Amino acid sequence: MSEPTPPERRRIPSFVHHRSRLTDGQQRAWDRWWPVHGRDVTDVVSRAEPFDAQSWFGRCAPLILEIGSGMGESTAALAAAAPEIDHIAVEIYEPGLAQLLMRIEQAGLHNVRLLRGDAVDLLRESIPPDSLAGIRIFFPDPWPKRKHRKRRLVQPEFVALAASRLAPGGTLHLATDWEDYAIQMRSVCDAEPTLRNAAADQPGGWTARPSWRPLTKFEQRAVSEGREVHDLLYHRCHGQANDDLLSVT
């Protein structure tokens, strides 16, 4: 008699999906432009619309994944500043995605695609190892209450998965305005053997705020409220990671 298959341990999500009403302008942008620029992670993971960045963008170019694009302010500005790079923004908040659609059309951008859903599922199931030029995670939900910190995105299993999807030399760039989360991020990323801290020789291991990272209204508010913003920049080391160990459960 065969052994019963143990039940799969349920992964604790790092987000709560609150449905919010779109403004009239956002709704018009969604109706017109989501079929052009957007996809659902569930469709990509199920292979209804397989992950194929070259087909999506109509070219072969370096690809950056942004996890949690919010209202799209940074995403649109960074894509406009680097037209030679393709950008995929993953977000669950529909008004934010709709606002980014408006920014894309207003700026005439051709190097941004949007995915609605869970970035961990996308990384684990659809994005090939060694394929991304960069991953950006700017101001993820800090889950400040101690009992909720297990929900934070930047945990060892996630960082190992993210690092495996970076091409050798690719970058993982994080930023947060919550000091204890910044310390956690640095500790977790420093412990990942396939990553190297670009500021390892700097005090505290923090990266100086890059001048090219847009100063958003969100960050301005954090600074005005007295919270220091920390940037962390890591490079994927050359060499192969053991992908058998890189599953997020």
UniProtKB/TrEMBL annotation:
Pathway: tRNA modification; N(7)-methylguanine-tRNA biosynthesis. S-adenosyl-L-methionine binds at residues 66, 91, 118, 141. InterPro entries: SAM-dependent_MTases_sf, tRNA_(Gua-N-7)_MeTrfase_Trmb, tRNA_methyltr_TrmB_bact. PROSITE patterns: SAM_MT_TRMB. Its EC number is 2.1.1.33. It catalyses: guanosine(46) in tRNA + S-adenosyl-L-methionine = N(7)-methylguanosine(46) in tRNA + S-adenosyl-L-homocysteine. It comes from the Bacteria. Substrate binds at residues 145, 177, 216-219. GO terms for molecular function: tRNA (guanine(46)-N7)-methyltransferase activity. Belongs to the class I-like SAM-binding methyltransferase superfamily. TrmB family. This is tRNA (guanine-N(7)-)-methyltransferase. It comes from Pseudonocardia acidicola. The gene is trmB.
